[in-house]
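Supplementary Note 3. Input sequence used for the single-chain structure prediction.
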Amino acid sequence: MNNDIRVIIVEHDPFSRNWMALLAARDCRTRVVGEAEDLTDLLPLLKNQSSRIDLILLDTDIPGEVDCIPLILKETSNSKHPPSILCTGIKPNLHVLNQLSHPIFKGYVKKGEIQNSLVWAITFAMEGYWVISDSIQALASSTNFSLPKPCIVIEGRYITKNLTEHQANVARLAFIFSMERHDLANELGITEDWGYGLVSAVYEKIGLKEILSGEFDTSNYFGDNHLLVELFEKLRKGIISPVKARDMETLAFHLLTMPEFTELK
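The predicted structure, written as discrete structure tokens, is reproduced below.
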């Protein structure tokens, strides 16, 4: 299941765009096939893309482009297999929400609420769910906006309940930023051997070795969330055996970015 979802990121803020690209690159389910700052950059990508585009991650806060959604719909209307669109924003916007009735749209999330769980949101969208974050749900409820079903309300989080603050920082550097061990040691001001020990302790705390053994109770990690169980099983089975260090880092990344979510019926 390597790089199955081909994504174009449309994001005005360069820091956010780089962060989204980093998360998508670290996730084994996605591949970034294009990046755009605004519609001027995006439209040529849509016209000239020789291979498929599965999803457009669309910033709805681009200055001066309040009508970007109708323009993108027009540009993709003649495509035999138009890409899905997942909208992002800094704060909920009713004008944006009211424009998302076309089936091509797969949700609307506030960036600050999904955080590191961005690619999980993309994956849920490609699994057929409409994906929103808490404040979008609140906006829909307060304005009687009828959310498409099935719908998932997603909240980004680290799985850090068993990690100390220092271990959580190690996990962020080692698995989100994918730092090499000597760079990790330099960043933390420790020896490289100590760095390896800290990473091993994080593996132990998040239950990675138990998961890789195949002999673990999914309810300990995912409760009764059948969707997370199914998605994570796909990830685990996609890891090559015998397990390599890079494979362990990939699974750790997915565990640490796994979101809380509520499925709306």
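The longest strand covers residues 30-36. The first helix runs from residue 14 to 26.
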